[in-house]
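Think of the structure tokens as a kind of shorthand, similar to the way a musician reads notation: each symbol stands for something richer, in this case the local conformation of the backbone. In the example below we present two proteins back to back. Begin with the first one, reading the sequence and then the tokens, and try to describe in your own words what changes along the chain.
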Amino acid sequence: MSTKFYDTNGLLNLLDEAFSDEFICSSKTLEEIEHIKVSDRKDQNIKYRARKLSRLLDINKYKYEIVIPNNEIFETINEFQLENTPDNIIMSCAYYYNKNIKPIVFISDDICCKVIARNIFGLNVESVNNNAEEEYRGFKEVVLNESEMSYFYGNLEKNLYELLINEYLVVRNINKEIVDKFRWDGTQYLPIKFGSIKSFNFGTIKPYDGDIFQQFALNSLFTNQVTMLKGAAGTGKSYLALGFLFYLLEKHKIDKIIVFCNTVATANSAKLGFYPGSKDEKLLDSSIGNMLSAKLGGLLAVEQLIQENKLLLLPMSDIRGFDTTGMNAGIYITEAQNMDINLMKLALQRIGDDCICIIDGDYKTQVDMNQYAGNNNGMRRMSEVFRGQDFYGEIELQNIYRSRISKIADEMWGD
């Protein structure tokens, strides 16, 4: 059985699991992990994983072997006419070990690394978990040297990176800097250029600090009839969704906004019991009312929109038999992680061809009832079924833009 040789990507994805057996890595991987821990360009999730991996490497120092690049390793890179990038150094270390010491299998989830390791270095290559489907984020990232970039730009009509329709591509140079962004439309890679939109209720709506994932989200909202926005609290899901819907409403591109909501109490919290009042009063006293009030400047603004028939709040308990056909509406399914497959199916079947739909939620960390978790999660199943359709887009937002407290609290993951 071949020994596993992990690249940086593979170790960061596996964490504890990597240490179940002895493995090999390059000293360049250790350098990259240290760089990620302190980088201002990395999101909090990956920095957290890098810190955790550093602790695991310290605790399990006898479980792995380190290959330090030598002259032969750098000569191999030159022989294959590659550049001395961190990824190429790591793969050349794997090639050296496989050739001179004992057979290895190169483990990575990086698309470009797998292609180069297999086709140029001739290594046996596997993903982190060949039996598990790769988590779909709505985008892929590739790091290209000058020759690879030249070939890509000369072949934009070829789906070189096997994207689904309406999936996005982030192109980085060898310094990991973003140089371009594309969407695959089924026939070619289209460049993504996006500025801002303006709303009376929301002001100027634009990607925060140029966030590329928020750019993808806004591009999908303009491009597709249905868009799913995923991500942790504070990544901008509701800001982008509501901002876009109110932009359409004010431009008379839609006649009303309909919010489908499943008002589930937050997991592990105490329930307050019965709320008095009408349907709208009860909903406005719940999490959906709190969210809308915060985004629109207060409860009175929300109530006025309801009275003007520009906003309709519809609990999932009342959704059966409802049909939006002919309403020219923008449907917003919020906190969609709290829906099972049947409920999500029922909600989607209410949406007419003259309407658009935005779904947001976080089924990784914010599911509030066990019945909505795992393979029974409606949002997860919708992603599996709809991705690749020519009217559907999906983006997992990556960066948290709330307070410093919120960013640090996001690191409170159980070990």
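Once you have a description of the first chain, move to the second and do the same.
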Amino acid sequence: ESRSEFVSNVSHELKTPITSIKGYVEGIQDGIADTPEKMKRYLDTIHTKAEVIDDLVNNLSVFSKLELSRLTFEFKEGDINSFMRDFVDDYRLDLEKNGIKLETDIPTDEVIVRMDYEKMSRVFSNLIDNAVKYRSEDNPALSVSTMCSDGGVYVNISDNGIGIEENELKNVFEGLGIAKQIVEKHGGKIWLKSDGLGKGTTAVVFLPKI
């Protein structure tokens, strides 16, 4: 999509959480949140909506950098499996502290790819943050795995959360516009898979091998 379309989409997407926040704040001002439980629920919702806005603004600023200053990529060769093991370890403590079970299946084989480490860290952070946001409330779990093929490597980040209906997958994916741009600069592909509502979601990143 063009820069103007992206900005227009983000502007549109910002309106929903902002309207919601205003509504909940007015509810508090009007005294509708008249029990501690209600107040907590209202404040939790406001916090969640603020995080959505934060994500959108981050995406917008990264997109601006990519588009306007033609952000330079510093590619270097490295083992994607080793990179992913270190990356997941950085998240492990936070996830476990939040009661999220982390499962990994990352082989010890070396698979050399050419990538910009900082940009790809941003992509995987975005995908893990999304998986955490839409996790299952009852027994939250996150799975990170890599699988090698002749042409390259597939990195899968799966949650066991709310899932996505097939006809909504494209819309949700548009929110990952920045990640898509970065991955495509690496000659790779990124997509989402879900078996439907309540069935969890998997984000897949494919990077070509050298």
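Compare your description with these statements about the second chain. The chain has a mean pLDDT of 86.
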